[in-house]
Design brief:
Length: about 425
């Protein structure tokens, strides 16, 4: 069912809700991440708008949902993300490993775990030195994690090693003292800590088996040579020509952050423990490098009334907080200008965005996205409004109040689709 909202090209369309869909098929089950795009949305956008094989670009690829969906359809894909953990997950999700080879490593790991349990935990382990490790992990957990880490470091095949690393990353999170179901790091209570003795080895084995089965499904589905390449450039500052030439992309599908990391979804904080255990040195930089991460001190006008008015309203309530929003949209506008240049004439961009409130004032992110692309030679095709039952998002950022939609606490997102002229 469709009902038009505000502008005639903006529709609430229930067929995009995918309420009962399994969002964890094939490699999509490999690792959770905040605000993931659901594969059904990426897949349907490709099916509706990408008629030729071409090239897909995701400038905020996170764990690579859109890249996986492009590749199974025979479309090559390029993704970039500033978070090393996200890049690693995206790489593993899009890299086929022959099952026979994978199974031989899994058997070896099982034997190793059996021997470690049988021989007892060795004592000459090298616990990594990072801030607060004892705050987030009990001593026994640290020992078991180190044993797995040392095993992974000795794996001679890079793709297999990365496959193990992402199972390890989820194991780290699950055996840490962080509260389940939160993206930010909050420690469980002292009482819970006393009783918390995770069987780290079993968690790791469970993740590996789940991911191995996901890989088997992916292999059976993907009968083509399409590939993904994942980078770490920041589109706010430009797009390297050796990666993407101007006018080379057929379709952009992405879900950008919908505000600065500090006050919306803290991707860096979510990934910090994994990034630290995996030895990614940029772990502290992720939220700073994220759009809006560096605060600008100037009150900028965007010459777009809905945005400028919103900023004025926020400034009237909080003259400091408004600079977070300005910093985010300054970066967002620059990034869109750079992305626009690499899209071919006739090419499509589909941005999946959420509207959020700052100081009780709604920011019309979907309209702003549309305006910024229109400034760069695009025409708006449509905006689909979908409910997001599957997406884990912080409730207090729950977005919007839309004419025609009665449930104001409902989480919605907007799929803004434009074509380059
Ligand atoms: C909503 S998430 C993307 C989720 C992804 N669609 C998925 O399904 O996993 C947004 C991503 O943008 C990344 N990000 C934030 N600012 C960025 C920037 N300036 N350049 C590249 N990536 C950025 C974050 O690290 C995060 O992974």
């Amino acid at each position: 069912m469709q009902h038009a909202l505000k502008s005639s090209k903006r529709y609430r369309d229930k067929s995009w809700d995918f309420q009962k869909a399994d969002t964890k098929q094939y490699t999509h089950c490999f690792h959770s991440y905040p605000a993931m795009m659901i594969p059904q949305v990426a897949g349907r956008i490709i099916d509706e708008f990408c008629k030729s094989k071409g090239l897909l670009f995701d400038p905020y690829c996170g764990t690579g949902t859109s890249l996986v969906e492009a590749n199974i359809r025979g479309i090559d894909a390029i993704g970039t993300d500033i978070n090393p953990l996200a890049r690693l997950i995206a790489k593993v999700k899009t890299t086929i490993i022959p099952l026979k080879l994978l199974d031989s490593y899994l058997i070896d790991f099982n034997d190793f775990i059996f021997a470690s349990r049988f021989n007892g935990i060795k004592l000459d382990f090298k616990i990594p030195h990072f801030e607060n490790i004892n705050y987030w992990f009990k001593k026994d957990t640290q020992r078991m994690l180190v044993i797995i880490k040392e095993y992974i470091e000795k794996i001679d095949d890079k793709d297999i090693q990365d496959f193990f690393k992402i199972a390890f990353s989820e194991t780290i999170r699950e055996s840490s003292l962080t509260r389940n179901g939160e993206f930010k790091l909050y420690r469980i209570s002292e009482k819970q800590i006393e009783k918390f003795n995770p069987d780290v080895f079993s968690i790791m084995v469970r993740k590996l088996i789940r991911n191995r089965n996901g890989m088997a499904e992916y292999i059976s589905l993907k009968n083509n040579d399409a590939k993904s390449h994942i980078y770490d450039f920041n589109t706010v500052y430009g797009i390297p020509k050796n990666v993407l030439l101007p006018e080379s992309v057929d379709i952009v599908i992405t879900s950008p952050p919908y505000g600065d990391s500090r006050t919306t979804v803290a991707y860096g904080q979510f990934s910090r423990l994994s990034n630290q255990w995996l030895g990614f040195e940029e772990y502290n930089e992720v939220d700073k490098r994220s759009m809006g991460g560096v605060k600008k001190g100037e009150f900028i006008r965007f010459d777009y009334v809905p945005l400028d008015k919103t900023l004025q309203k926020i400034a009237a309530k909080d003259d400091k907080r408004v600079y977070d929003v300005i910093s985010f949209y300054t970066d967002y506008e620059r990034s869109i200008a750079n992305i626009s240049r690499v899209v071919k004439e006739g090419g499509i961009v589909a941005y999946v965005v959420g509207n959020r409130r700052v100081k009780g004032i709604e920011i019309p992110n979907d309209e702003i996205t549309r305006e910024f692309f229109e400034r760069n030679g695009f025409i708006h095709i449509k905006t689909i409004v979908r409910e997001i039952p599957n997406k884990r998002m912080p409730k207090k950022n729950s977005p919007t109040n839309i004419v025609g939609i009665t449930d104001t606490t409902m989480n919605c997102e907007y799929i803004v689709v434009l074509r380059k002229m």
